[in-house]
Amino acid sequence: MNVTVAPHSSGTVTPQERYSAEVGRVQLTGVQALARLPIDQHRRDLDAGRDVATFISGYEGSPLAGYDLELGRQKGLLEANDVVFVPGLNEESAATAVQGSQLANTLDGAVRDGVLGIWYGKAPGLDRAKDALRHGNLMGAHPAGGALVLVGDDPAAKSSSVPCASDLALADLNIPYLYPADSQDVIELGLHAVALSRATGLWVGMKIVTAVADGSSGVDLTRISRSPLPMVPRGAGQHVPTARLLQPTLGPLERDLVTTRLRLAEEYASLNGLNRVVGRGASDTLGIVAAGRTWQDLLAALERVGLTQGALESSTVRLLKVDMPWPLSPGSVRDFADGLDEILVLEEKRSFMESAVRDILYGRDGAPKVTGKRDDEGKDLVPAYGELDVDGLLPSLRKRLAAHRAIEPAEGLPAHRRVLLPLAPADKRAPYFCSGCPHNSSTKPGGDSLVGGGIGCHAMVLLMEESQVGTVTGLSQMGGRACSGLASHPSSTARTMFRILVTAPSTTPGPSPSAPPSRAASTSPTSCSTTRPWR
Q1: CATH for 275-403, among 3.20.14.10, 3.30.70.330, 3.40.50.920, 3.10.50.40?
Q2: Cα(473)–Cα(249) distance, integer angstroms
Q3: Maximum Cα–Cα distance for the chain, whole Å?
Q4: Which strands make up the sheet holding 317-322, listed edge to edge?
Q5: C-alpha dist (Å) from residue 220 to 31, 180, 340, 452
Q6: Which pTM was predicted?
Q7: What is the tens place of the pLDDT at every residue in 330-369?
Q8: 289: which residues sit within 8 A by CB, 6+ positions away?
Q9: Between the CA of residue 278 and those of 186, 287, 319, 476, what are the distances in Å?
């Protein structure tokens, strides 16, 4: 029985109704949509007569830092829908736990039809868990369960120590991945991801960038509840997971992964139209490819230059919205390329989809040229750094659209320029430890000691005055903190390096081998058990 959203007299919808409603329209952040996903999947399984539980484990990290908190808030509703949430000690242990969810129904005494396993973490967490994820994907996903890999990417490093992009890492793991553009996509593509995993026996990724995780958009629940079941290719759902990763099992298992299972993934994408052509016209000469959040920014940028979706069919431009960037379906690319002179691929960071499009079309008669990071003259075109938003897309778009007479060279300037308003002058105020925090007095090195930050609130030492914290040398990755000081002993003077450590109650940095004991004793910081890791 469907539950319809029934707003209160104030016109608002309660948080509980955002998850319990099955028809109507609700507003969800990307993180809330991810929390709702296993509930919708459980309902779909019940409708199909399947008894499937869900196991979720991972390690927090922005832009998915609030995912575990939201799961905790909805604990009662999740338990009512047979969802078990167990945060991981770290990313690797969480991925290993999800491995077990796929092996559960290969053992005697299984009491359910299957278990859906969901791992979550940010891109650096994916890097740290790659060995466990590689093992899990090779073992495979159970046809009545499925395994999802939710990866949070932070391309502008807004809350990370490095810019994050997980495309190449997922491809290296042979994990197909979907890239949602908004909260509606998160649920719809999430349901596809589960079906894809069950059909192929592969773990399936979901790339969630900061703008999608933190962004909020409307979700049409009626469209989701009434959507038809996905089509599956012939031979789907046959893989049996195994943990016997030794010969003679290992060789056939690898062969099945890179042939049968990945082939089924491509066929699934084609059957279900995961890559969709928009604005096809007889006079098209330029095709533009984009996925995920970049797709939304592309549409906004085209509107700025006067090309709305309604005007595309009469222009020289067609678009390809890619929901599954890897493996990129060859059939959809070839169909999209038919009759074009150029394909422009818009994507953040490295030329990932661009290389795939070029490989698919290579050697075909009349194949269009492929541009992206560089134009047809070899000059820089689409930035390979930072976050690719509307303003970042406009220069590249204007150049290629004008070359194909989709806009006049003198056009393309927005009718209303975005005006940047200067902020009123204010005194510089760098972030500092919270009021009452013991670090205000405890994390003060003595003398000429070198100081480095780590992943946590102690990263703020990079923004503080040297008079407060000493000479700051930089920031290490998660788990690396004090190790960089080890190299200072044989190659430098007797200056001591300390890492400001505040996340573990038992953590007290020791001196480098060249440091006098008295200095180490005078600079040991007090730990802060209430600090959440900055990951």
Answers
A1: 3.40.50.920
A2: 49
A3: 80
A4: 275-278, 317-322, 286-291, 342-345, 369-371
A5: 16, 15, 35, 48
A6: 0.84
A7: 999 999 999 999 999 999 999 999 999 999 999 999 999 9
A8: 319, 320, 322, 336, 343, 344, 345, 346, 353, 357
A9: 20, 10, 5, 45
